[in-house]
Specification:
- Helix content is about 25%, strand content about 25%.
- The protein is α/β, with parallel strands linked by helices and about 500 residues long.
- The longest helix is centred in the middle third of the chain and has 22 residues.
- Strands 3-4-7-8-9-10-11-12 form an eight-stranded parallel barrel, surrounded by five helices. Strands 2-15-19-20-26-22-23 form a seven-stranded antiparallel sheet, with helices on one face. It has a five-stranded mixed sheet with strand order 16-1-21-25-24, with no helix packed on it.
- The protein has two domains: about 120 residues, Golgi alpha-mannosidase II (Immunoglobulin-like); about 375 residues, TIM Barrel, CATH 3.20.20.
- Strand 8, helix 5 and strand 9 form a beta-alpha-beta unit.
- It has eleven helices and 26 strands.
- Bound molecules: alpha-L-arabinofuranose (AHR).
- The site of alpha-L-arabinofuranose has 10 residues, from loops.
């Protein structure tokens, strides 16, 4: 049994956590839209054609904001194709994923779906094939009350109320050679600055996200960030980060350590933002939007076999293991640790496509393993982030160096009466005796200890066994004055909920 000591300082919260840390993402990709959120012929579809079983699961996750319509898809998307009477909408070829796109879901339908889901929309603009003209028309169509050509067009489409989308992404992964219309940092930075200027002239309260690198492995990282920020310091409110963890072969130790690389990525971007701010002599603090993050590797081989130009193909349908859920939990801990700079994040994605929710056309919807750490963080990870230090034994890894077996982060609830400690154990075979000292509270007691684990680290939830990997309550956690003692199982995700005064 490993001995792990930790401290939580209740007296000095790191920051208020922005609820939008628990955002997600739906792209016109694979079956995310068609047979994911939208399936008019499904027995459980509502009058708008949305699957109510999926809506219920999304509501359970309490997702505050959903990025839409891409992703790579956004970079060649014409928003006009997805508005107006469905019968006259144009079917198009989606070049990003080489799929057919009937455009039966567009801005209006998605706004409606998001409202039903209880989510705000983060609208991603096409800065691949388009520019200032089309994006200023789009924002007028979406947000202007009426009396102009594009706002009246929305009225004529049966939507008199403006959508009032507040958060706009100025393109997607514009540094990526796979992107339709990819650009150099200078080209992108100038375009984003001018589009941003137009959007802020329309409404200065809009929050704009400029593209950072598509990942820390890009050859232009982090010079891309520095150049783009130099050009867009005035217009940008957020800088985006994207990251996906992959398992190579059966190397679990490296895979479980991937989030240490993610943390280094965040730190570099935080420093670059400060560097650019100093160069601009600016007081403004641009925040980070990790608007794509997840585990993604199971579906890599299947992607090559998909028939091109089919509608709603089975693409990127990763079936997640318990091990993947631990990595997602470790991602969430890192996001919380940097909640002062990371104000928004989107689990990529939400339904079917690298997603916590899976569906079968005409059939059921179910929760993947990764659903649970995200659910726990979304439910109990709101409020104030508390400084949490963990002294854990570590393992040596060729790619990541020293990786601590245990990682943890704590949150004080908005009413100040609960502390939740999120904790992951990366050891496949060692339990940990956790002793965590909580400063700043007079009375502490254990409310519950939830654990996600399974004897088989590769266990999954699927249509036949949708509840093979589910959280359960653990016994034995106790508090002695200010000391919490709990046993943390090998390969487990833990949620220790404490009542505090
Ligand atoms: O989320 C899947 C894809 O990953 C997105 O379309 C793209 O932005 C990223 O490369």
């Amino acid at each position: 049994m490993m001995q792990v000591k930790a401290t939580v300082d209740g007296g000095f919260p790191v920051c208020e956590i922005d609820d939008r840390l628990y955002g997600s993402f739906i792209e016109h990709l694979g079956r995310a839209i068609y047979t994911g959120i939208y399936e008019p012929s499904h027995p459980g579809a509502d009058a708008d054609g949305f699957r109510t079983d999926v809506l219920e699961l999304v509501r359970e996750l309490r997702v505050p904001i959903v990025r839409y319509p891409g992703g790579n898809y956004a970079s060649a998307y014409n928003w006009e194709d997805g508005v107006g009477p469905k019968a006259s909408r144009r079917a198009r070829l989606d070049l990003a994923w080489r799929a057919g796109e009937p455009n039966l879901v567009g801005i209006g339908e998605f706004a409606r779906w998001a409202k039903k889901a209880g989510s705000e929309v983060m609208m991603a603009l096409n800065l691949g094939t388009r520019g200032i003209e089309e994006t200023r028309n789009q924002v007028e169509y979406c947000n202007h009350p009426g009396g102009t050509y594009f706002s009246d067009l929305r009225h004529s489409h049966g939507n008199p109320e403006p959508y009032n989308f507040k958060v706009w992404c100025l393109g997607n992964e514009m540094d990526g050679p796979w992107q339709v219309g990819c650009k150099t940092a200078e080209e992108y930075g100038k375009l984003a600055r001018e589009v941003g200027k137009a959007l802020k002239l329309f409404d200065p309260s809009l929050q704009l996200v400029v593209c950072g690198s598509s990942g820390p492995g890009m050859p232009t990282f982090p010079q891309w960030e520095a150049t783009v920020l130099d050009l867009c310091q005035e217009q940008a409110d957020f800088l985006s980060l994207h990251t996906y963890a992959k398992k190579v072969g059966d190397d679990s130790a490296t895979f479980l350590g991937e989030t240490t690389q993610f943390e280094a990525f965040i730190k570099t971007v935080e420093s670059t933002v400060e560097f650019a701010r100093a160069r601009a002599r600016s007081k403004k603090r641009i925040k980070l939007s990790v608007d794509e993050w997840n585990v993604w590797y199971h579906s890599d081989a299947a992607a090559a076999k998909v028939e091109p130009w089919s509608v709603g193909p089975r693409l990127l349908e990763d079936v997640y293991t318990l091990e993947d859920a631990l990595v997602v939990g470790a991602f969430l801990i890192v996001l919380l640790r940097h909640a002062d700079s990371v104000r928004m994040a989107c689990l990529a994605q939400l339904v079917n496509t690298i997603a916590p929710i899976m569906t079968e056309p005409g059939g059921p919807a179910w929760r993947q393993t990764i659903f649970y750490p995200f659910l726990h963080a979304s439910l109990y990870g709101r409020g104030r982030a508390l400084p949490t230090s963990v002294a854990s034994p570590a393992y040596e890894n060729a790619k990541h160096g020293q990786v601590p077996y245990l990682d943890a982060m704590s949150v004080l609830s908005p009413n100040g009466r609960e502390v939740t400690v999120f904790c992951v154990n990366r050891s496949p075979d060692s339990k940990a005796a956790l002793e965590l000292r909580l400063g700043g509270f007079s009375k502490i007691s254990v409310l519950e200890h939830l654990v996600l684990s399974h004897p088989d680290p590769l266990a999954v939830n699927d249509k036949a066994h949708p509840e093979l990997v589910i959280p359960r309550k653990a016994q034995g956690a106790l508090v002695d004055r200010d000391l919490l003692k709990a046993t943390i199982e090998p390969y487990s995700w833990n949620v220790l909920r404490l009542s505090v005064e």
